[in-house]
Amino acid sequence: MGTIKNTLAGLAGAVALNVLHESLKHLHNTPRIDLLGEEALQEGLEQMGIDKIKDKDTLYGATLGGDILSNAAYYSLIGAGQPEHYWARAITLGVVAGVGAVVLPEKMGLHDQPVARNNTVKALTVGYYVVGALVTAAVLSAGRDKPSEKIDRLVRRYGLE
User: Fold this and answer.
1) Whole-model pTM?
2) What is the rounded distance in angstroms from the CA atom of residue 84 to the CA atom of residue 101?
């Protein structure tokens, strides 16, 4: 059951990341993670000897699907271990994913302009991945305790009985 919950929570985080990106990508000075993903997919296909995707809509859909699946798998790791560490893991994994998205493309022979053309875009790129990770932690944390149990625990913790 933990694996299913972690996977669904990771999916929620991945969808949140992509909704955020898709909603803002047309604004000035925002990351274009989609363009980086499309380039990575096309390069990967070429490396495997598979023809590049020519249709823009097909390329967009394949990239978006791959992005959601890979980010869902990554974000599902937030649910590994003790529940009291969900938030710390979310922040850590979100920052790591975001920094990786900024610094790895150039090292992989990809164009980093879509996510690293200036400091604002770099910061937003990292922020997007952190948001997705925090959504994952929120989903994992939801329903963990009944609200009354949380209140009782806080009352005992702070000696307010």
Assistant:
1) 0.86
2) 27
